[in-house]
Structure formats: C-alpha cells, structure tokens
Amino acid sequence: MTSVLGHLTGLDFESAYRGWGSCPPGFLFEAPVLDEVGKEKRAIAENIQEQAKYSKGLLIWTDCDREGEHIGREVRHQARKGNPRIQTKRAKFSNTERAHVLRAAIEPIELDERQANAVAARIELDLRIGAAFTRLQSLQLQPLTPILTNKTISYGSCQFPTLGFVVERYLRVKRFKPEKFWGIKVMHLRDGIKVNFLWNRVHLFDRAAVIIMLERCLTAKQAKITKVNQKPTSKWRPLPLTTVDLQMMGSRYLRMDGKTVMEAAEKLYTKGFISYPRTETDQFDKAIDLKKLIEKQLPDNNWGGYAQGLLNGNFRTPRSGRHNDQAHPPIHPICWVSPTELNANEKKVYEFVVRRFLACCSEDAKGQTTEVEIQYGDEMFHANGLIVLERNYLDVYVYDKWESSQQLPNFQMGELFEPTEARIFDGKTTPPNYLTEPELIGLMDANGIGTDATMAEHIAKVKDREYVATVSRRSGRSSVQELIPTRLGIALVEGYDNVVVGLPDSPSLSKPFLRKEMELRMRDICAGTKTKQQVVHESLEMYREVFIHTQRRIEMLKSACRKYIVEQADS
Amino acid sequence: MTTLQDQLSATLFQTKQLPVSRAWLSTFLTTSTSNRQIPLPALTQTALFRILNSDIRETLSTINPTSLLPRNITDPNTKETRLQGPIPLQVLDIEDIGSSLWSQVEAIERVERGEAVRGREIVRTVNVEGREEGLNGNNNGSGGNATGGPHRLTFQDAAGNRVVGIELHRIKEIGIGKLSIGAKVVVGNAVVARGVVLLTPDCARVLGGKIEAMDRVWKEGRKMRLKARVEEMESGELGINRNRNGDPMEE
C-alpha cells in the first residue's frame, strides 16, 4: 500500500522551446511537448516502480473523477516500468463508509481510458493555449510602461472569462444612469392594523400615466376585494451540499473566500471529519445510512440536541437534486469532532457542513400565507401576510431566514371598502452592485468556466495576477467583499474585445464561449464520440484563429493598455 | 347591382372598420384588375394587405367624422370622456413605461453583441453560418422577445390628428419588436382620461401591418433616442415635460 500526491507528471515543451525568446509564440500551438515526472514527484514515482517489482497486481484507489482516472493511469505507467506484467485494476467508490469500501475492493473495475484521455487533452490545451497567449501578450505589453516591465501577463482559458465577468459588471455599474419612477401606495386601516397594499405594477417610468391611474382610483372611491387566499406554505429545507454551493454559501455566510473555504474543507476531509469536498452530487445514495451519521453528532453542545430530535422521529429523507457526478456523495460530516481540535476557519466550515447536513434530514419549515387582492379603479393591489407555524430545519440551519410578517385583518371576498389613503410615491433606480465572489462562482458554474474543483483557484489566480482586487462594501458585520478589476484587468478585456470587433464568428477571449465549447468537447471524449487527438486539434484551431487575429490587431491590445495604464497613471 | 368598388369598400368597413378612400380604391382597382379577373375575396385580401402597410393618411377616407379623432380629445382638462369610433389609427411610437430606459439600452446592446441571457447563463445568438447582414446588424428592435409593458403609444388618424394611448390592460399584440411603427389599430368605445386613451383588449383591435420606411428609421434610432432621454434626465429635467409632444416621429 502506498500513495501519490496529485498528478505525477507534468506536460511541458521540449527544452528548445522553453525560453521565452526561443521561438515565436505562435509556434507553441504545435511545438513538441514532453510528459515528465516533476522533480518533487520523482521519489514517489520511484517508490511505485520499486513496489511494483514485488507485486502481482495493482489496485488503484484514486478519486473516482476525471482527474483521478488520469492520475490512476500515471500510477499504472510507473508501475509497469517496474514490472511490465503487473495486473492493474481500479476500485470504484464514492464514499468511505466501511461496507462501501469493502464492496469496491471486492469488485474492482478497469481504468476509464476515455476520462483519462479527456484530462490529457485538457492538460495539453491549457499548456499550449496558455503559453502561446501569455508569451504573446507579455512580450508585446511589457515594453509599454515600466509598470509592466517585470510582470508576467498570464493568460488562461478559464482565467480570462473569469476576469471578463468581473469587468463586465464593473462597467455596468460605472455606466449606470439612475432614473426616476412613480407608483401608487394604498393603505387601509382596519382593526387598528395599517394594511399596506402594494401595486401589482410595482412602479412605472411615466409620471403622467401614474397620475391618471391614481385619479381613476380616487374617482372610483371604493375598492373591491377580489381575492382572499389562505393557504399553507412551506420553506424547503436545503438540498444536499455540493462544492459550488459550499463555496457560494461559504463566502456569503462564513466571510471566507472560496479558496479559503476549500482549503479548510480539504483539511477536514484529510483528517476524516467530512466527506470528499469536491462533488457535484446533490442527492444522497439510498444505500447510505444517514441516521448513523446523525448519531455521530449527538455529543455536540450546539446541535447535539437537534440531532437527537431527528433520531427521535423528526428525521426526513433528504430532498434529491438533479445532479449526480457518479463519483462522490454530497458533502456531509463523517464523524463528530470537538471544536477545540479545529482552527477558526475549519470550525466554521465544519459547523456549516454539519448544520447543512442536519437541515437536509429535517422537515421543511411550515407556515401559512394570506393573500388579499383588491381592485381599485382600474388598478390591482395586493397584501400578503405570513405566519411561521413550525420552524423545523430553520432551528439548525441558522443561515436561512424566514419570519412571520405583519398579520392581516379579516377581509371578505367581494367586500367593498373605501381605502384610508391612496397616494403617489416616487423613487430612483439604483445601479447593480459590483460582483461578489458567490455571484462570480454562480456565473462560472452556469457558463462552464472551470470545474467545482478549480473555480476557486481561477478566482485566486486573477487576484494574484492583479487583474482583480477585492474591496469591502460597508464595514463591520454587514461588510461584503466585492470584486473590482484593476486598470490592467480592464485594459486586457477591452483590448481583447476590440481585437474581435467586426469579426463575425470570433467571440472575445473575455467571454465564456470558447472555453465552454472546449468543455463540451471534453465530454465528447468521455462519451467516446471523439478522440483525444480530434479534440486537441479542433480546440487548438479554434484558439489559433483568435491568436492570429490578436497578433494582427495587437495594436488594439496595446492601445487599451496605454489608455488605462499609461495615461491614467500619469494623470 | 353594386359596383366592385362598393363591394370592396363595404367588406373592408364591415369586417375591419376601415373606411377606404374612394380615390385610392379606384386606383387600386385599375392597377390590379387590368389584366385578369380576380375573385373578390382575394382582391379584398390584397387591398387589406396594402392598406395595413400603407400610410392611412393616403388610403383611408376622412369624410366621416366618426372615424376620426375628435378635435378636443387630447385636452388634459377633461377628466374623462368616451371615444365612440370605431376610429382606425396608425402607431407612430411605442414605449415600454414598465422598464427603465437604461435597462432597455442595456438590452439593445446585449443584442448588438450577439448575446442573450438565460438566467445566469450567457448565450451566443450570433448565427454561426454568418449570414450576410449589414454591419450595423438590423437589430430587430429589441431582439424579438417583447418587453414587459405597459406600453405608451402615439397614434395618428387618417387626417393626421394625434393622440397618446396607454395600455391599461395587457393587449397581447402590443410590444416592442412585436408591434411595428405604422401598425393599424382600430379604437372604439374607449375611455379617454386627461387626454390619454386607455387601451384595453375590449376597445382596441390590433390589425397589424407597418409603414416600412418609418419603422426602419424608428428601429435604427431607438437606442440613440433612449440614451438621449436618459441624458436629458441626468441634466436635471427629470423627464416630466416630455409627456406631451414627446413624439420622436416628427416629419
């Protein structure tokens, strides 16, 4: 039994092409590449060769996802070097429960070559495209200003769309123009309760129209109750936890960025406190014994009592989401750990994972809504009331808020009454906020940028490269971290957008489209409809076209940099 | 026996409430029936199609005052009056007063970039075949998906009189990108409040059609007009005095 630490080998260009001045950057689309064991991994590789010499078989237990498949193949490659006749199998497992692990050991399967090929394709594409554009833009932009002279202006096919989202929102905020709007407010006093009826049209941007509508309300004098609806309602308990959700919630409620959340989760996983934190699955396998996992939480001072309640009959089977990566279960606690054994970040993440898990196994919160609708003149208004009857999961999932509102007095269907007050109000539109990290993760997820495992790294990368900075909005407990592009960040996005202006079928590198297409091709490899060679070739062609445009219109990129960095720095 | 011209005229008035100009109709008949005999229903369809795509100041009769807007209809001092009609009108301008001008500018720009938003996802709408389309891309108004409304419309009758209407209740044919400039709407038995016609499905019958030249100019200039109005507001005049005569289609 031995172990590895991530990928064993790394892909790089042959030494003749490694120097930045060794060849024109465009050559890197086809320059020869080598797959080599990294210096720091050499001991691991040698260990596997050595161990293989004395073994008949090799059983691979890497994570059951694409990367794991590729790492498994690297391990096999090293093992065969030590012993060409070694038999290789891989264990298929998605959690570390005893029974499940035993079964995986008894029924090993073959390595999935397709998934490993998809990863190999991704690695080669990232290397070639990343290196070609990084060299091109660094070499061209560095001489423009001393600010850039010693800077590596890196390009990555995920990094740039990530930056693109931040810049797009920033420019929307900057360009925003506030506008005035008007609306009608109706208030009725009954049983000592002031009931505010909201206009179904919310507000309009035409004052004259609103005045006419209000006048017709007032002329009508009486309003009529057109709907009184009382119905039970519930607030659903959350879905089982995925990585994307953990990162989004983490930055929203735990005040940690995605990368920090993942680092803490990673540590909790290696110590055996929580399950594997990289998963897209939001449904629990039927075979998993949830009650046993709940039982583990009984010793806790904060939620132990709640867990006991679940075991005493409050337990509900979790809702199932629509995602299943077939590799890992939703993130859940494996066993209880005393808070004193964890550092501050780990404690927060662990607590979140546990509370979320217990919430999943709870009953939805129950309440009752009352909806009253009135017709007044030609206009419709409504008022809603909510009474929370049973908090259920909300008691443990402190991150969700659901509270009773003002109670509505009695209204009868068809009843006529003269509202106490009806008047016009005005307001102004407000700009959107700058992008926050949870929003950015949501955008990346929806647009196929990065995987659940890499999104946080891409965000950290654009910060490291000083394309994006974080700034606090408000202070104290209600502060929110917002992402704002630097001048260099804006210049790169504007430059690349200008490069493709007027070209009918060349989307900008700041947009997610090219990367998304590449991602779809990776799936084709996994599905067996395309080979690695085909995909590498097609994707390279796609990016090479943009590369040629960029070279030809490099002036666009330069002038954007001059505009934002040189000139604005001078002023 | 009635003449062909009378028959056509009667059919168009009875089915579509369109009082067709005699002069126009006789020119129409001489040009379209000169060669061969066309059955009446087909001829009616052709005439209707021409009218819907014409300027009604040229094609409709102004003889009967009941099919024209009354002179004092736009008087803001009249709290409420009723428009008998039916009066055929053509659309000169349409605005979405339920959305901010800026959000409409943003939507137009998204279409210009060949993007659409689906929830959080950004989708490319550029046709991959790269069909020939002018560089300024005939950006179909706001890209087909009609806006939320309610809408404020400027109408014109056959004599050139104008009136503003507000979509008080949703009318499904009304929308930016759906209803063209020059489209014909017949209004009858409608409430007019403070000089504004309150449009509902009961009192406004949308016949459709357009005036191609005006529609094109309107679409091409829409973003500019929206931006100009936003800027006008910014410079202090918060868009209160644009409500009357706010019609950009001034010839």
Automatic annotation (TrEMBL), chain A:
Alphabetized, the UniProt keywords read: DNA-binding, Isomerase, Topoisomerase
Gene Ontology CC, one term:
RecQ family helicase-topoisomerase III complex
SMART domains, alphabetized: TOP1Ac, TOP1Bc
Gene Ontology molecular functions: DNA binding; DNA topoisomerase type I (single strand cut, ATP-independent) activity
- Could you tell me which residue ranges the Topo IA-type catalytic domain spans? 112-547
Query: Biological process (GO) annotations?
Result: DNA recombination; DNA repair; DNA topological change
* Pfam families listed in its UniProt record: Topoisom_bac, Toprim
Catalytic activity annotation: ATP-independent breakage of single-stranded DNA, followed by passage and rejoining
Q: Transcription as a keyword?
A: no
Q: What does this protein do?
A: Introduces a single-strand break via transesterification at a target site in duplex DNA. Releases the supercoiling and torsional tension of DNA introduced during the DNA replication and transcription by transiently cleaving and rejoining one strand of the DNA duplex. The scissile phosphodiester is attacked by the catalytic tyrosine of the enzyme, resulting in the formation of a DNA-(5'-phosphotyrosyl)-enzyme intermediate and the expulsion of a 3'-OH DNA strand.
Concerning its family, UniProt says: Belongs to the type IA topoisomerase family.
This chain belongs to which protein, by name? Answer: DNA topoisomerase
Origin species, per record, is Aspergillus sclerotialis
TrEMBL record, chain B:
Family annotation (InterPro entries):
RMI1_N, RMI1_N_C_sf, RMI1_OB
Residues covered by the RMI1 N-terminal domain: 15-59
Q: Which domain of life is it from?
A: Eukaryota
Q: Which GO terms describe its cellular component?
A: nuclear body; RecQ family helicase-topoisomerase III complex
Q: Which Pfam families match?
A: RMI1_N_C (PF08585), RMI1_N_N (PF21000)
Q: Where is the RecQ mediated genome instability protein 1 OB-fold domain?
A: 69-222
Question: What biological-process terms (Gene Ontology) are attached?
Answer: double-strand break repair via homologous recombination; resolution of meiotic recombination intermediates
Q: Which family does it belong to?
A: Belongs to the RMI1 family.
This protein is called RecQ-mediated genome instability protein 1
Recorded source organism is Aspergillus sclerotialis
